[in-house]
Each structure stands twice: as C-alpha cells, then as structure tokens.
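pls read this protein.

:::
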Amino acid sequence: MYITCLDLEGVLVPEIWIAFSKASGIPELSRTTRDEPDYDKLMKWRLGILKEHGLGLKEIQETIATIDPIPGAKEFLDELRSITQVIIISDTFEQFASPLMKKLGWPTIFCNSLEVADNGEITGFKMRCEKSKYTTVKALQSIGYETIASGDSYNDLGMINASKAGFLFKSTDQIKADNPNLEAFETYDELLAAIKRAMV
C-alpha cells in the first residue's frame, strides 16, 4: 500500500512568501526554504519583518487570494489521486493553505498553524511536530504504508530520503548538485511516470 507525499509550495502552487514579497514591495520576504534550511529561524525572521512593516494575516491572505496553482498541477494531482493515496505535507499554515486547497480540489494537507492576535498581527506559529515532513513519513511507514515523496527544498530532503522512492521537483541547481543520488524532474508528466514506476 502506497501513499505519495508531496510538498505544496514550489511543487503545486507558487511560493506564497515570494508572491507576498512582490505584492508588499519587501524584497527580504522572498527568502524561502530553498535558501534557508532552518525553518524555525526563517519564520522568526519573517515575523520580525512583518511586525516592522505593520503587516498581518489580512494582507498575506489578500495576496494568497490572487495565487493560482502552477499550470498543470490540479490535473497532475487528480490523476495521481486516481491511482494512489496522496497527502500534501507542508510547512505552511492552515490560514494560508485553505484557499489554495479549494483551487486544487480539496486534497488532504498536513500543515501547521499561525498564532494571530485580535488585531490580525501574526504573533507566532505552532508547528504540528518537529521535523514534520520526515516525522510524518516515518509515522505512515509505521502503520504499514510505503511512501513515495517529492519536493523542491531543503526541508523536503528528510521525507524524500526516508521514503521508498523520492524525487526532487522544480528544485534549485544547488540542491540538485548537493543530492546527485536523487532523480530530479521539471514536468508533472515526468514526476507522474516516476511515481508510477516506483509503485511497481
């Protein structure tokens, strides 16, 4: 029995923080897990910038409302879900992900949550568990599933390497160079074919 575990941002939808960086005119917010492997450090840094500029959840959600899935993502997901169970495992937050899940046809997502004050200021964040992608894949394996995983960033490597098969997708040249053992793909057709091969 297989479950395919996919990252969200950069794989199925554009990076939320990059879109918000452009919308807000704050270039520092374009930094993502492709650049900073330590997610806790990255998020605390982001929250500091938001506070400095007086920006909160409402402004980010307004940007998210304008984001559409990467072309072909929904069709890829629909076809993949017709042949295997799929869970999106993301370090994003429920308050960000919900409108994007609607556009993707409501797939299952495991993610985190933001702590938001009454005035809309994001005061903190609550991670579902430590090393959530790796931990989730290991938990799925412990209840009898074989996992196949794919993502684009440093924080996806744990779940990719822990799975029966794992692939980089739309990743950076640096991450691909650092992980020559991992197959890397740029199109959904290639990724779908690789997942099907891994299930044989």
The chain has a mean pLDDT of 95. Residues 16-64 form a domain with the thrh gene product, domain 2 fold (CATH 3.90.1470.10). Residues 39-53 form the longest helix (15 residues). The chain is about 45% helix and 20% strand.
